[in-house]
Design brief:
- Helices cover 68% and strands 16% of the residues.
- By secondary structure, the protein is an alpha+beta fold.
- It folds into two domains: 62 residues, no CATH class; 63 residues.
- A two-stranded antiparallel ribbon has the order 1-2.
- α1 runs antiparallel to α2 and α2 packs parallel to α4.
- The two termini are 28 Å apart.
- The relative contact order is 0.12.
Length: 128
């Protein structure tokens, strides 16, 4: 799923992939504000984000072929490191990045915790 999401992201960014569809929106604010109504929007970015988030979640939560108590400890340590790293990354972003760039960082922040966790966990496994 991560690879499919990344492929979709490449299509979206470099080839301007669009999937225009009417969707039900609880709140939508573009040219006009609409509440509890149907709006036509580019659904590609939402689908790509859902696929990426689900793929990273499944990857991060998947079990190894052989699980042990040591791996549970390794997972907990990797998660703590990822949480701290993600916090520092986001804190520095709040301090140094403004405007539309900050909105990009907020979107990126949806994935960085998973990425940091997977990086720390895999590196710890390799070290072990």
């Amino acid at each position: 799923m991560v690879l499919c999401g990344l492929a979709g992201l490449v299509l979206y960014i470099w080839f301007d992939f669009r999937l225009m569809m009417p969707v039900f929106a609880v709140y939508s604010s573009f040219l006009e504000t609409k509440i509890m109504s149907f709006v036509t929007t580019n659904l590609a970015d939402e689908l790509i984000m859902i696929i990426l988030m689900t793929g990273f979640f499944f990857t991060a939560m998947s079990k190894e072929k052989v699980e042990s108590a040591d791996l549970d400890t390794l997972r907990a340590e990797s998660f703590a490191k990822a949480l701290w790293t993600n916090f520092v990354f986001f804190l520095l972003s709040v301090i140094f990045i403004y405007g539309v760039g900050f909105l990009s960082v907020v979107l990126l922040n949806l994935f960085t915790l998973f990425v940091f966790y997977l990086a720390f966990f895999r590196f710890s496994l390799l070290k072990r």
